[in-house]
Amino acid sequence: MGSDKAVLSFGGPTLLARAQQVAQTVAAKTYIVGPREKYAAYGEVVQDIYTGCGPLAGIHAALKATTTDLNLFLSVDMPLMTSDFLSWIVGQAGDKDSLIVVPDALGGPQPLCAVYRRQVAAAAEAALKAGDYKIGHLFDKLPTRFLSEAEIRDAGFSPEIFRNVNTAEEYQSLVRAQTSPEGKGKGNNHQSQPYIEFQRVHKAFGSKVILDDVSFDVLPGETVCILGRSGVGKSVSLHQIMGFLKPDSGRIWVAYEDITDYGEEDLQRIRKKVTMVFQNGALFDSLTVGENVAFPLRERGGLEEAQIYQIVDGLLDMVGVREFRDLIPSDLSTGMKRSVAIARALAAQPDAVLYDEPTTMVDPLMAHLLGDLIKKLKQQLKLTSIVVTHDMALAKKLADRLLFLHEARAIFFGTFAEMAKSNEPIVQEFLQLDSMDFEHYFGAQRPAHEPRV
Ligand SMILES: Nc1ncnc2c1ncn2[C@@H]1O[C@H](COP(=O)(O)OP(=O)(O)OP(=O)(O)O)[C@@H](O)[C@H]1O
Ligand SMILES: [Mg+2]
Prior knowledge:
The chain has helices spanning 15-24, 36-39, 55-65, 83-92, 120-129, 135-141, 149-154, 168-179, 234-241, 264-271, 289-300, 305-319, 334-347, 364-381, 392-398, 416-420, 425-433, 438-442; strands at residues 32-33, 45-46, 70-74, 100-104, 113-117, 144-148, 196-205, 208-218, 223-227, 249-254, 257-258, 274-277, 352-356, 384-388, 401-406, 409-414. The chain folds into two domains: 4-183, Alpha-Beta Complex (Spore Coat Polysaccharide Biosynthesis Protein SpsA, Chain A); 196-273 and 350-442, P-loop containing nucleotide triphosphate hydrolases (Rossmann fold). The chain has a six-stranded mixed β-sheet, with helices on both faces. A four-stranded mixed β-sheet has the order 3-5-4-6, with helices on both faces. A four-stranded antiparallel β-sheet has the order 8-7-10-11, covered by helices on one side. Helix content is 38%, strand content 19%. The chain is globular and about 75 Å long. By secondary structure, it is α/β, with parallel strands linked by helices. The site of adenosine-5'-triphosphate has 10 residues, from helix 9.
């Protein structure tokens, strides 16, 4: 897959993240095939053994590295690929007589969205040694099952899912075609589906009802702010998205999966995609700032020390606290701690970040800077975000849509413009609180540690 477009984001998660997401729904383990220095931060990497020989060398190296018999290969540049299709094609590979199962659709065989049995490695190695790099020649030599376009359509899939992209424009036009009513294929359109969704969630502690029939959704790349008075259930909502708490009824979807009944193992997989920046930062006090940020990188594994240092420095630089790398969290102000917590959340390479009150207990200047930082992360990394806040100025700066919780109900969910028209008195009160104009009070003053993003 090794082209640079893998780590580019075309209006949502990167192509690589998207491919990993769909692959992980069907595979017990996923590898990235490509140069380690480029991809180590994103997952476990397999490098070509025969270099400069094209995708066949990648297939060969991965089959040598794997311990499972059935191996699914998926090119990252097929952003319309779906877990439903991958699950179907893996199901087609149950027949032991075929060593390869490959779709023959959209103009020919699709060797980079196909299932290969491990023993294909030997034939691939022989071909590479003989200087024959054409994957198609393997299909002639080994028992191969071709899944015809008709068969694929009969199973309910559009051949469009194999469409690959090279530019943001191509990607946008693909998504547009898919989201138009006539272009919609079976379950293959994550881009228009919410990344996070509450469906009629009810949550009580004892007799105290905290959330009553609350529904809202967050689209990929969107920022939703959750507003409401203290104790209304904002943090409880975030904790349910992370799976720390379960709803009493209703469904919760995260990363396109219904996580409501998930156990710890599945939740941990989801928490790799969605991370939370806690109200108190939740940093490890005994570790330096740098080691705190390195923590998710070390947990993920596969990185050399030098690479970890490089990534940590880059992230600290991004949030404007690189000079504090060797201090311990107790030496930092609350605002600085929060910046470090954001850097640590980003180190996990999430698709989505949940921020719980990112600007409380810091001075207005720092609040302003943290708001700017979150905004820049949203724009640059296209992260899907939820920001819980009392701070209307922050909400105004960040929110695409807002959810207003009051007395256990979602009394408003929509854009700022729609909010202004809301008849709810409490919503109007909150809007009136938004009268402090930062620039008016503080002019052009900026602390020395202004985040650089
Ligand atoms: N694990 C728990 N057990 C019992 N009650 C809980 C638990 N967690 C939260 N609560 C209660 O649920 C209510 C909502 O709490 P939550 O922390 O979500 O409020 P919040 O909207 O985030 O408030 P704040 O703005 O003060 O952070 C509170 O009354 C709280 O005491
Ligand atoms: Mg809270």
